[in-house]
Design brief:
By secondary structure, the chain is mainly α. The chain contains 8 helices and no strands.
């Protein structure tokens, strides 16, 4: 008797747990709601990585003047599909940079942010494939994407690394904005 009463409770608990771990709304195609408010643990890991990188930059006296993340427009001005394309491009750059070989302690510091950002990128790609598979970016986004492609070829890897890591909270805010699916600031 006890086992029969416990089984439905276990199924209900597991179903609820999996539903929050893998949010999926069949009416909307997907859900990025878990990125609207990032967990404090994830934010701390990203902040620790950024501070560690800033220390490395100070010690190495490395300078970079890339203006890759400086835009004349705000992500809130973009349509939701444009926001998703923008964030995917930012996450691609950031995860690529964080996946490169690095000094041992910095490599350890960036493991958690890399895992988190990689998961966000995969979730975003899943949404894009179901919601806007053939979306054409707006003119301002298309211009920024071209600028990104030029930077990937023209900038040094050190400069791309500095741009991606120093602007990591900018990328996280853009992710939050894409997840909101409405006006954001």
């Amino acid at each position: 008797m006890l086992c029969l009463g416990f089984t439905p409770l276990l199924v209900l608990t597991l179903g609820t747990s999996l539903g929050t771990a893998f949010p999926w709304d069949p009416l909307k195609g997907c859900s990025l709601s878990k990125y609207q408010f990032l967990a404090p643990l994830e934010m701390k890991a990203v902040q620790k990585m950024k501070e560690h990188f800033e220390d490395i930059m100070l010690l190495s006296n490395r300078q970079c003047n890339s203006r890759l993340f400086h835009r004349k427009w705000n992500v809130a001005e973009l349509s939701v599909p444009d926001r998703m394309v923008l964030v995917e491009a930012e996450l691609d750059l950031t995860t690529t940079i964080l996946g490169l070989p690095a000094e041992r302690t910095f490599a350890e510091t960036r493991l958690r942010p890399l895992a988190f950002l990689s998961q966000a990128r995969e979730d975003l790609r899943g949404c894009m494939s179901t919601e806007a598979p053939s979306h054409q970016p707006s003119g301002k986004l298309r211009h920024w994407l071209q600028k990104l492609q030029v930077a990937k070829k023209a900038e040094t890897m050190d400069c791309l690394e500095a741009s991606a890591i120093l602007h990591i909270f900018h990328v996280l805010n853009d992710l939050r904005c894409a997840a909101l699916r409405e006006q954001c600031t």
